[in-house]
Specification:
By secondary structure, the chain is mostly helical. It is built from five helices and no strands. Helix 1 (7-34) runs antiparallel to helix 2, helix 2 crosses helix 3 and helix 3 (84-113) packs antiparallel against helix 4 (118-147). The chain starts with 6 loop residues before the first helix and ends in a 9-residue tail after the last helix.
Length: 163
């Protein structure tokens, strides 16, 4: 088991984060292309943003699957935590993050092309993702500021006050 993530894993992690930002930027166009223009022509820019949203969602799915494969093929030693309950919470949060990141593009695709009833599930998963990302960032802050255990350095971010 390795102590550090591979450069590919780091790249996929930060690329997924970047694509998440793209999703935040493009999602308002989804409503404008489907809801806000009954009987009126849709702004062509909104259609482009909609396409970008769908493509970046597909990339998030592909990157998530690649990251799961990497984690299985080249496992990384979990960081040490001061309490076993925190380790359990961290494992749960990571499993839930991966599941959500994989299910969001699937439900988005289903809503767009197969069954519109997947839309509310997609929206619910988006809210779940925000909660999980909040937990993820809180955990990162604990590792970086409180425990100062070098976890961020394992993901390619070196802070001056880390060991």
């Amino acid at each position: 088991m390795r102590d550090e993530y591979s450069s590919l894993h780091k790249t996929l992690h930060w690329a997924t984060f970047t694509l998440f930002l793209v999703q935040l930027w493009t999602y308002p166009a989804i409503g404008r292309t489907h809801v806000d223009h009954p009987g009126m022509p849709v702004d062509p820019w909104d259609l482009q943003l909609h396409k970008i949203h769908m493509i970046s969602g597909g990339l998030i799915l592909a990157f998530g699957l690649m990251r799961l494969w990497l984690r299985r093929k080249y496992p990384v030693q979990p960081s040490s935590l001061p309490h076993p309950l925190l380790a359990t919470l961290a494992r749960f949060a990571h499993v839930a993050l991966y599941a959500t990141l994989l299910l969001l593009p699937v439900t988005g695709f289903m809503k767009s092309y197969i069954i519109s009833a997947a839309g509310p599930v997609h929206i619910l998963l988006t809210r779940v993702l925000y909660a999980l990302l909040f937990l993820h960032v809180a955990g990162v802050i604990m590792h970086a500021v409180v425990w100062r255990d070098g976890l961020l350095a394992r993901m390619g971010v070196k802070l001056p006050f880390q060991r």
